[in-house]
Amino acid sequence: MADKPSKSHGRLAVRPTLKPTELMTERPDLAGAWKVKIVTLFPETFPGVLGSSLTGKALQDGLWQLETIELRGFGIGKHKDVDAKPAGGGAGLVLKPDVVGPAMEQARRGTPVNPKAWPVIYMSPRGKPFTQEMAQNFAKAEGMTVLCGRFEGVDERVLEEYNIQEVSIGDFVLTGGEIAAQAMIDATVRLLPNVLGNADSTVEESFSNGLLEHPQYTKPTEWKGRKIPEVLQSGHHGKVDAWRREQSEKITKERRPDLWAAHLDKED
Ligand code: SAH
């Protein structure tokens, strides 16, 4: 029997775990650290890209923490079903409210009810477009809960019941909310105190003042016959600032007439 190949031989195995996720968190809650709870069918996709570079170091240093809550553990019946056909017919599958609901309730345990202190978000192409301003607000919260959809999305009643806000990362459709969640969390975590080496970089970058950033250059001063603009080498801070501002305005005007119009409105 022992050498008989298993039924799943040669297939990629997906092994749902029934272990309560609370037992899987590696460390106890770090007092005061910003925390994100992710409700997902695919917890193995986290921390993903957030585990690298500055966000990864900050995670290791305990400046923020991440807990995944696996939807499959709340699945129903022998097969741990999490989805079913859309009511009214049509293509695909919808995540069941009696599966997503209990997962959201687990996530809610021990978190503030005030959505400013603890936003509860569903990643969704129908959501409010994610912006730098939203990242700034999320970073000011104690933490947040993020629900990642799959298939055709989640049953609408779950969104109503738990007062979940929908957030989109752009006008396109992904297969799941995990990449969107990671993009949103990355933009938020880098605004937390002490995550970036240089806090000024979040003050001067694109969107923080309603404009896109000016071009950036670094050594060597000449590359493939292209020189760094003279003014940047002048050492004259006033002139450098004026040049950057001018470039920033020019680029915003050309590429993002929507941002430019909003900027002009604000100045009035
Ligand atoms: N049927 C849905 C799309 C489902 S895509 C519709 O037409 O609106 C599957 C999941 O991917 C969604 O539940 C959502 O969590 C995620 N997703 C897809 N595109 C996204 C986007 N632009 N922003 C955020 N999440 C997205």
Automatic annotation (TrEMBL):
Catalysed reaction, written as an equation: guanosine(37) in tRNA + S-adenosyl-L-methionine = N(1)-methylguanosine(37) in tRNA + S-adenosyl-L-homocysteine + H(+)
InterPro entries for the chain: Alpha/beta_knot_MTases, tRNA_m1G_MeTrfase_C_sf, tRNA_m1G_MeTrfase_TrmD, tRNA_m1G_MTases_N, tRNA_MeTrfase_TRMD/TRM10
Composition skew (Basic and acidic residues), residue ranges: 238-257
GO molecular function, a single term: tRNA (guanine(37)-N1)-methyltransferase activity
GO cellular component, one term: cytosol
Domain of life from the UniProt record: Bacteria
Region (Disordered): 229-257
Residues reported to bind S-adenosyl-L-methionine: G149, I169, G170, D171, F172, V173, L174
Any one Gene Ontology BP term: tRNA N1-guanine methylation
EC number: 2.1.1.228
tRNA methyltransferase TRMD/TRM10-type domain: residues covered: 35-261
Subcellular location(s) of the protein: Cytoplasm
Keywords (A to Z) from UniProt: Cytoplasm, Methyltransferase, S-adenosyl-L-methionine, Transferase, tRNA processing
Class of enzymatic activity (EC top level): transferase
HAMAP family in alphabetical order: TrmD
Function: Specifically methylates guanosine-37 in various tRNAs.
Family: Belongs to the RNA methyltransferase TrmD family.
Quaternary structure and partners: Homodimer.
Identification of the protein by name: tRNA (guanine-N(1)-)-methyltransferase
